Amino acid sequence: MKAEIIAIGTEILLGEIVDTNSAFIAQRLPELGIDLLYTSVVGDNLGRIVETLERAWNRSDLVITTGGLGPTDDDLTREGVARVLGEEPYVDPALEQRLRAWFAGRGYPMPESNIKQAWLIPSARPIENPRGTAPGWWVEHDGHIIVCMPGVPSEMERMWTKEVQPELERRFAGEVLVTRTLKTVGIGEGTVDEMARPLYATPGIGIGTYARADGVHLRIGAKARTREEAWARIRPVEEALERIFGDAIWGRDDDTFEGHIADLMHERRATLAVMESCTGGLLSSTLTDVPGASSYFVAGLVTYQTEQKIAFGVPAETIAEHGVVSQETARAMALAVRERIGTDYGIGITGVAGPDPQDGIPPGTVHVAVATPDGEAYVITTAMNQGRAAVKRRAVTTAMLLLRRALLGQLSARPA
Amino acid sequence: MKAEIIAIGTEILLGEIVDTNSAFIAQRLPELGIDLLYTSVVGDNLGRIVETLERAWNRSDLVITTGGLGPTDDDLTREGVARVLGEEPYVDPALEQRLRAWFAGRGYPMPESNIKQAWLIPSARPIENPRGTAPGWWVEHDGHIIVCMPGVPSEMERMWTKEVQPELERRFAGEVLVTRTLKTVGIGEGTVDEMARPLYATPGIGIGTYARADGVHLRIGAKARTREEAWARIRPVEEALERIFGDAIWGRDDDTFEGHIADLMHERRATLAVMESCTGGLLSSTLTDVPGASSYFVAGLVTYQTEQKIAFGVPAETIAEHGVVSQETARAMALAVRERIGTDYGIGITGVAGPDPQDGIPPGTVHVAVATPDGEAYVITTAMNQGRAAVKRRAVTTAMLLLRRALLGQLSARPA
């Protein structure tokens, strides 16, 4: 079946926010056997919303909209859909009751303008949105479907996952595209491409390589009538790639690198503490994005000022001799936090996040150290010519890569 | 003049990459007095590219495309534009020479497929692209313009800034749209909308409200022949809104909440230390995203395990009596870190990030405390029914809001 996505909101047209909802939905249509032919963005203008919805309605079986379900005058998705179908909105008593209860539960009165969020039209049934006040609309008419979801990503993503995708699966699972992504680290994209090439010719299979922040991804795709058939084509290729890449493969599909680290730490029953400076807590935050991280992540210290590094055990002489931003200080931070908190591993990060140089050291210079159970410490230095936020992210990835090498015993051989 | 943007590429439709180019361009059109009415994404399919280009050509004066200028068979933008104008592509000798020189300069032979990148049509002139092999196309015919740019953001952004925008300015600087965004906090969108409504009727002015993680934004827009004229319309409305919302307005335009906090702290020459549990370092990381934050942000402790909270000064009895996730523990954390690090203010955060409940406490329950110079501490408790990442972000925002209230002296009156 043919589908298209319409993101509604002037703030997207003005570039004030980037539309990530369309990509989220687009990623999830292929496995349903639904072909996405177009996505578009239209502003909060009733005429143009109607024009765009009408064209979509005429050329596609399924139209998915995000945004425009808020309570204000320029939230016009409901009005637009009603216009296209020539139906009159009415206030649904059950929705109104739930809406007023939502406000009552938060202890403030409902502005009457919000009543729009209790509207329905004859062809629409509401889609639950426990994360917000705006229910979605599932509109069905003449064999065409329009699904209207909120623009707030957390609300949209829950509505898609819990309500919309299951319903679409039940009804339209046609030819299914199944994909398996293998995530590698430590090998360049060109080399990964060459290593995987022998398998490119496998019939009924597509293989693509994608360079990402956490390494190079290999995606295997297969189309078939059933998921089982598709998987039967994918599995042998996956196994062949696993033989080729060995432990350069750290994860699959939705695995995250921080989740991979958590698994490695759990397996080894090892514990970790970190002392961060230029990353300002981002390493701790990233590692603890994984549910259950508390079983290995003991503590993080953000020693943003030099005195704090010393207060938490970094020798003043080391800093005096080599400077705050130095391999020696990074190593001392890793050793000190491991010692002070009493964990198996310790990580130290010091650098210049930017935008300005610090003591003549260019922004983007970052030293990352990992202290291991044997009391050794290993350091990597990276220099990146990027913005402050990117430098922080890259430094965090570098720290996780170095920790992985330590956990796999790939460091003791060659101290950095 | 009316414009639209078309992003071309199946990888965008598949959600493998998010289209940031359209937002980049969209942000820069209003100041040129160019109205962006639509943006859309179409895959690497000649028929659909032609259909989309044709509609755009017919309804808009200016069509801007990104992507599809690469050397491979599924880079079809040039073919699509030629088809829409009914013109024949030919190899331009000057472009071919430059293309071969580019490869020669990098010491490898040019794959013959690349010759497409030296194509032109009679209505097109090339646009320089020193960052890549694909020149852009400036196509002009019957008073309509199509500008084709590469999809690689760094190439597109340079081409836009150095070539396309200056040319558009020279030729179409017509009516200018100037906007001013006022950022409020602590008031719901519906209420903000009602409070601002009296001003909606102001002639020559558009006002929109947008719910954001850092509060509700009010955007005032005015069109005029000059920026001065537009500002002359905006200023009285801005002042009226400032009177209505008072210090519920914390910032303007590109201000970030963490930047606002940094300003408030600098003004007061005050210092801060934080002790985080469920946010895992995200508060420290967010506050230190602001360059120069080290002048007030002294240290952050991520006490992810209970023993660490005690080790850093939280009374064991408090935790034993009230539990790790409690208002009392949050208060004790704020007081302990302020005391231990020796700062003017301290923040403590404890809660359940989820996805699972902890000791029967539902995920999304977060207690945030701020300790003030007078040794007092104030607590807010929030309950949110959202994903782990969203809970962390919301908790960080809540902490910054509470700190702001403390800095503005809005707390001492009413201890939470």
UniProtKB/TrEMBL annotation, chains A, B:
Q: Which SUPFAM superfamilies match?
A: CinA-like (SSF142433), Molybdenum cofactor biosynthesis proteins (SSF53218)
Q: Where is the MoaB/Mog domain?
A: 4-171
Q: Mind telling me which InterPro entries this protein's record contains?
A: CinA (IPR050101), CinA-like_C (IPR036653), CinA_C (IPR008136), CinA_KH (IPR041424), Competence-induced_CinA (IPR008135), MoaB/Mog-like_dom_sf (IPR036425), MoaB/Mog_dom (IPR001453)
Question: NCBIfam families, from UniProt?
Answer: cinA_nterm (TIGR00200), molyb_syn (TIGR00177), PncC_domain (TIGR00199), PRK00549.1 (NF001813)
What family is it from? Answer: Belongs to the CinA family.
Protein name (Swiss-Prot/TrEMBL):
CinA-like protein
Please give the organism: Tepidiforma thermophila (strain KCTC 52669 / CGMCC 1.13589 / G233)
